[in-house]
Amino acid sequence: MRNMSFALTTEQVMDGTKTVTRRLGWLHLKPGDKVRPVLKCMGLRPGEKVVPLRDPLTTVGKRREPLRRLIDEPEYGHDECRREGFPLLSPAEFVSMFCATHKGCTPETVVTRIEFDYGQEG
User: Which CATH architecture has domain 2-117?
Assistant: First the structure.
């Protein structure tokens, strides 16, 4: 099972309000795959360990789409901001934040939208 970092949305994953995440990679995921949500898994300093946030997440769906879809389709964008764990951000604010935290990303970048649930591990 692979680890997936939620350093920017730790609270939202821990309280179960985040059901969608966007990533620049993760093309291999399929519905039903499980991932372990962790605080951080890259750039660990010597002696630091991976910190799991909760039980594994189950992938419900995955698709590729331009990040700017959130801006181009405002109703979709507002719902996605909520599902991403940022209900108070506008779609434009979310896209700006995402680009600022992902090197080389622009609103035109095609990202992987991953939907997951918090069901019990089977």
Answer: Roll (2.30)
